[in-house]
Amino acid sequence: MKKIHLLLVKAFIKPFFVTFFIVMFILLMLFLFKYVDDLIGKGFEWYVILELMYYASAANVSMALPLSILLSSIMTFGTLGENYELVAIKSAGISLQKAMMPLLIVIIFLAISSFIFSDYMLPKANLKFGSLLWDIRNKKLSFLIKEGVFNNSIPGYSIRVDKKNDDGALHNVMIYDHTGNSGIAKIIVAKEGMMSKDDNHLVLKLRDGVRYEESSGKSSSYNPRQELTRMRFKETDQKFDISSFKMSRTDEEGFRGNTQMLNLKGLTKKKDSLSRELDSINKFAALNVSSYYKQNNYTKGYTKVVAKPKDIKGEIVNTIPGNQKLMVLQSALDQANSVMQTTAGRMTDHADRVKNIIKVEIEYQKKFTLAASCLLLFFIGAPLGAIIRKGGLGLPVVVAIVFFLIYHIIATVAEKSATQGSLTPFFGMWLAIIILSPLGAFLTYKATVDSALFDVNYFKQVVVNFFKRFKKKNSPVKI
Fold first, then answer.
1. DSSP H or E segment with residue 327
2. Fewer Cβ in 10 A, N or C end of the chain?
3. In 3D, which of 168, 127, 73 has the Cα closest to residue 391?
4. Would you say the C-alpha torsion 26, 31, 34, 37 has a positive or negative sign?
5. 386: DSSP letter
6. What pLDDT, in 10s, does the model give residues 410-420?
7. CA angle 25, 68, 30 (to 5 degrees)
């Protein structure tokens, strides 16, 4: 038994790690495609992008881990069935459930590890990822000088060069300086230049050029005059401040209250605080609205209103003096409109607060559904591999992707419905597991009794027998 268990564990571990890293690589490539606009043209160092991908990979575990367990379990038992090793194990008196036991222990260990990861490590990774992505999105584009184009990246300056060499040499440089208070740009033209920069400044060493400055000279109200100053130079330095192009790191404490960056303890505290705030707001709103309906004297200080009163029937209206009916009805209408506007604003605020509570409850359930999905997909993948009896990356990959898509679509739709309030957060997050659990039990039963559920020859023989019976039934009877 120990040798068989060791054989099964070794047969599972290798495809599990291979498929896990392949899926993680694919998801990271999709992540780069999603955020490529935020990364290109900002001059990030390679280690900043790797750090962002490292933190983003933590969020991809919730998709990569269940898929790799499903695929590797199908491949493991499919290979054993294809090589008749599973038949040999059963002929030795070992049932499929006993053969699955060592792998079940491994899956339970992975499920517990995934729960610990989602409760402790994932919130910290999301915090690092969220703060770093915020800083990346708010970083300015890197200062780049392109040939034949005016560059306006540096505030107050427009720079144009005809040609730029790889070593930083520039030819035919033109600079428009708009930093003066007069609103008139200063122009610098140079035949050659050399570009260099440090951490905070860009320095252009210009040679053989001219500086043009236009300023107000001595003038009167009848004879305004402008002075143009032209200065030639052999060599000069023009320094630009580029400190704003550096990425500054934001304090992570500002992101710590986000729902995805909290563990179970933090989510429980946040839900309690949000619920208390909602209760206090509801009580205050009820008291505030009820104050509108208290009997008060609103007939004093009103001017004549042109609006016509509506046809309101009742003893209360008849008790109002005729010369005050218009004023009283207009006052009632104003109060009703005020109540409607106040209530509409508070209903919107109430809906937003309820939605925040639902998001907290959904994130709370996610900590457990990842571990449960690992167990569920194992009980789907292992019997499927024993039934289809095909190893490798052909049919097992197709079957695994189909079942994982079914699980992922149900889980996504249920989560969206729970977010919108159509389903309770608990039922919405566990709906996919509730629906597919009977399928896992059914497949385990079929694999135990050696069912030919996915055997093509079996279905072919069923079709042939059906047509034979149909032909025999419709054939004429000889007398």
1. helix 325-388
2. C
3. 73
4. negative
5. H
6. 988 998 888 88
7. 30
